[in-house]
Records
---
Amino acid sequence: MADNFDIIAVSPHPDDAEIGCGGTLTQLAELGYRVGIIDLTDGEPTPFNDNPEIRIGESLQAAKILGVERILLDLPNRSLMDSLNARMTLAQVFRQTRPKIVIGMLGMTPQGSPDHYQSQLIFDAAIFYSRLSKWEHHFDNLPPWRIEHIYYYFTARELIPPDLPLQFIVDISKHFEIKKQALLAYKSQFRVHSSYNPPIIDWIEGMGRYFGSLINRKYGEVFYGTKVLNLNLFQYYLSSSK
């Protein structure tokens, strides 16, 4: 039986989805949607942690704070590659969970992990494989699942890509503190450390304030789409001004 989700965010490591779209995910969960995060890897080893089980426990606590569900695929951290196995593994979960909307990490992050860009390649291919017919035997006979609504979150480790105009920003002002608390659940990752200047939580707050300022709100999260959004803006503006 299909285990239907409304929205799923795909994260190369536990905490990436929280950084890029945690405020939006908790807002949607609060509205009653079924929201999930798929972690491609467990994110370990890292400089501040010697036990992968600690990071997994932190990720589950973060998910609880956000009000979302979490799935770990356990692909290899640091050597995550766009491979047929990785594509098929994620595509199978898409067929099982049948999400209406999926959100993946956007693009290369030269200052960050190479896993980030590989995760986008895996994400894009898995969406395609999820809908392929006559391949059910590769997916435990699960039927195809077509995902029409595909978006990307951005972690702002580098400059904003100049060639991606199809973007929108979600106001997370009322949910930023929940996002922050979810990130602080990762004690093994976000402790104060001399190599972080400014501290990571300060950077995340600065990122949220910057994107919020672009829509005249306190905090925001930016997303990029693959299609032009079909919105009746006049109706939206009139209704929101009442």
---
Amino acid sequence: MKKEKQDLTKGPLAKQILLFSLPLMLSNLLQVLFNMADIAVVGQFAGSIALGAVGSTTTLVTLFTGALIGLSGGINVLVALHIGSKNRKAVKETAHSATFFSLLVGILFLLIGVFYSEAILTIMNTKQELIADATLYLRIYFLGMPALAIYNCGNAIFSAAGDTKRPLQYLTLAGAINVILNLFFVIVCHLSVAGVALASVISQYISAILILRALCHNKEDYGLTLKDLQIRKDKLASIIRIGVPAAMQNIIFQFANLFVQVGINSFDATIVAGNSAAANADALVYDVMAAFYTACGSFIGQNYGANNKKRIVKSYFISLAYSFTTGLVLGVLLVVFGHSFLGLFTKDAAVIEAGMYRLTVMGFSYAISAFMDASIAASRGLGETLVPTFIVIMGSCVFRVVWIYTVFAYFHTVPSLYLLYCISWTITAIAEIIYFVYLYRKNVKYALN
């Protein structure tokens, strides 16, 4: 029988983390590329207004999908911790409770998106010429939230067990269908923003069905059976304790970015479209780097459960090194080839030049975020999310809002808006590193001596 679970508590760490992260990286990269395909198809075949409409929803979509990713990060840590401690019952009950809870959260997000999209876009000061298409796109896109919740949960469970290949396979198939449907709905059916949204929804349900089927046919402790698919109060409490703060962090993080979007919306439509095109680079870099954060949480979780303190520290530093290098290389490449990258989304030279403002600042800033996010993942691997969440809320969320209404309000230039990212990351990273060191000394170094 094919081995479905990997022991992350033994073996050469640098090699293990890299091999573990590569399928995750490809999976995340494919998700980004398929989402970029939505915007690229709209930009190339439906015009700049449609491009701006879809692009203006990016922050809002990321807010809700980020919440699901944060929740799945907590699920990943819990399952990894129980696998490391060889608590078979806890692994089974956590996997079932997490799947059911994720589905409920996905349904809740669907209802919010369908009924309140237009109101939220209006509050965000979305351009009047963009709001109708943006609302239509969101209402259709949010129909796929339950499927997205299930896929992320399943991905988290498999990753906690060391299996990152199958989620990649399912996403690859679903993503390929997404691209084909994008082209068909927009070019052949002339559905514009509705077409790309519909293609996304269909592909999300395909990936969810595939990963759910795999979990139901899995013979490991984390495999699912319909009769056990229920929420157990003690496991739900653990999921809420670790996963919900992580989800709330992403929600508040993106909520702060809504204020950034409001700042962008204060400029003309060309700047808005340029920002929409360039913002695709953020997801491209962040999600590739995020593979190493997932690895960090999974390895630290299993080794913490197995009382292996040396591998906890090594897992942190190796994951940090990988993510920093990835962010630096990708950021520089985006600056060098920025015009070509932006040309994938628009043919308008003015929009491309506007997009280069963002790419130039962000390209040299991405690597800084590694220090923040790797430290957060490490703390979560030790079972702590509340304090890291509070730190990132204050350092990267509250700080950004303050920046918008002080520094940006004073200068009101595009560079003064984008600089808030690297400055907020630096402040938050320092605090997160200090807290991880404290947490390690308190919960690991002395406890396991």
